[in-house]
Design a protein that fits this description.
Layout: H1 15-27, H2 37-51, E1 59-63, H3 69-74, E2 79-84, H4 87-96, E3 101-104, E4 117-123, H5 132-142, E5 143-154, H6 156-159, H7 180-188, E6 191-199, H8 208-212, H9 215-222, H10 227-236, E7 242-249
Parallel strand pairs: 1-2, 1-4, 2-3, 4-5
Antiparallel strand pairs: 5-7, 6-7
């Protein structure tokens, strides 16, 4: 995965091609390290955000839920629904979590209820769809007035400075990454931004990130700074591999 893997408009795969890719992805989720410590840490951040919201037992939509691993965690906080393009991912989710509603469908066109959900959560999906604006609009339509949208995605600043941390992806894998300013601007059309930051300063070995993520430098700094302070500084500086934003739908 790198900055050169972006798709131009002329090269965008069809929905059928995208579905085939994501079916393949979920068949090979172990080899593709779909479950890993980074994602567990991100899950903790997102769950903490949801718990902080002034909503009791919210109706939550997991937009791009894959095999339902995170949706199952959301179900402990409220009424959770998961939707994903991959039919194989949804079959896996439904078999593992039969008490949760899962939907296999195109998130742009599936007839989800309007003004229904209190919270929409999406992880590493917005950077893999063909139309960012339509994606945000879709989330806004299904949310109640003043509902909450929580987005996480890869940080373009870091993706552009990756070394060999991630493999190349197949052509049907859309990859159009956002920087922090891009994400804020995108959300501002339909939402009031509450917070946006980077997390997981763990990747990148080119440019300034060669120094930021140097083992020798971090070991030396660790002698004078607690690890949590060093990590917090990197996140505030925008060096985190992931971006996380919390926004509230504007009152209708």
């Amino acid at each position: 995965m790198n900055a050169d893997s972006k798709n131009t408009e002329a090269q965008l795969p069809t929905i059928a091609e995208q579905r085939k890719f994501w079916d393949w992805h979920w068949r090979h989720w172990r080899e593709r390290r779909t479950i890993n410590p980074w994602k567990e840490q991100r899950h903790r951040v997102l769950l903490s955000l949801i718990r902080s919201l002034p909503v009791d037992r919210p109706k939550i939509l997991d937009l791009g839920c894959g095999h339902g691993w995170f949706t199952a965690k959301l179900a402990h906080l409220g009424e959770a629904t998961g939707i994903d393009l991959s039919e194989e991912g949804i079959q896996m989710a439904s078999s593992q979590h039969p008490n949760i509603r899962f939907i296999a469908g195109d998130l742009y066109n599936y007839p989800l209820p309007v003004d229904y959900f209190d919270v929409v959560v999406t992880q590493e999906v917005i950077d893999h769809v063909e139309d960012h604006v339509a994606f945000v609009d879709r989330a806004a339509r299904v949310l109640k007035s003043q509902g909450y949208f929580i987005v996480s995605c890869a940080n373009k600043f870091v993706v552009d400075r990756l070394g060999n941390e991630f493999p190349e992806q197949p052509p049907a894998h859309i990859a159009t990454y956002l920087g922090l300013a891009d994400l804020k601007r995108l959300l501002s059309s339909r939402f009031k931004l509450i917070q946006a930051r980077s997390i997981l300063p763990v990747a990148g070995s080119r440019g300034i990130l060669r120094l930021v993520n140097s083992h020798k430098v971090n070991t030396a700094l660790g002698c004078v700074l607690p690890h949590r302070y060093l990590e917090a500084f990197k996140e505030r500086a925008g060096f985190g591999y992931q971006l996380v934003a919390l926004a509230q739908k504007r009152e209708s």
